Amino acid sequence: MAETNHLIFDSTIGSFKPENIVNTEVKCPFCCREKLEGVIAEDGPILLLKNKYPVLRDTFQTLIIETEDCHSELSLYSKEHLYRLFHFSVEKWQEMIQSKEFSSVLFYKNHGPCSGGTIRHPHMQIVGLKNIDYTTRITANSLEGTVIHRSRGAELNLAKQPRVGFCEFNVRLYDEKALNQMADYVQIIAHYLLNHFHKRCNSYNIFFYQLEGQISAKIMPRLVTSPIFIGYSIPQVSSRGEEVIEEIQKLYF
Fold first, then answer.
1. How far apart are CA 61 and CA 99, in angstroms?
2. Are the C-beta atoms of residues 144 and 53 closer than 8 Å to each other?
3. Which is deepest, 9, 180, 209, 250, by most CB within 10 Å?
4. Average pLDDT of span 67-96
């Protein structure tokens, strides 16, 4: 099938999806681990399973359950668990890419009520797209930025040309052996966004990309999206960029 520009969201399946980020009285489906179906792989408390509610047509949707602790969050993980999660997740993402069954494979995380997620329990998603190649839509300059910190094999920066606008953080992996350092950078930004960035920021997204053989991650705080971007696709850049960089360096490095 020829590539298309849009995914079809199956509203019928979507109407059955549980939601407990806002509706906190709804029982968490990921806490009943003995009842989970479609488990593909596991590493201790970390599970990869087929999505029970595949709302996106012409895709293969999977979930990574990050932990048994429903009330935990990526910024709170021990280093041991953080590294274990990243190695497991990237490996499964790469396996789906290397299967050559899909035009491209998405790997991302939603956290918080403004992130677009529906379940509070910490999880990530790996989605194989049969007819869309996301890599043609990601520009290299959206992953470049002012360096916040650099170590051997990885870099953390603040995007100079954000995709959506204001403050977006990029982690670029130059050496696959530095995956733990990438995990550290992602965890630092998740913690910063939830604790220091803005008093109303309780949500973020993490998007992973593989472009020309290089893995990168973009971490976006989620607040109300600018109407200028929604209506005209014009991103804005925050005037607080240098202040944000200095604050992160002071707090974490």
1. 15
2. no
3. 209
4. 97
In angstroms, the CA 15 to CA 212 distance is 38
Contacts 24+ apart (CB under 8 A), 191-200: 191/75, 192/247, 192/248, 192/251, 192/252, 193/219, 193/221, 194/73, 194/75, 195/75, 196/247, 196/251, 197/167, 197/221, 197/244, 198/223
Cβ–Cβ under 8 Å, residues 156 and 191: no
Length of the chain: 253
At 25 the pLDDT is 83
pTM score, whole prediction? 0.95
What torsion do the CA atoms of 149, 161, 117, 49 make, to the nearest 10 degrees? -70
| Mean pLDDT, residues 164-190 | 97
User: Alpha helix locations (H) across 149-240?
Assistant: 179-192, 227-232
| Residue whose pair of structure tokens reads 């990243």 in the numeric block | 86
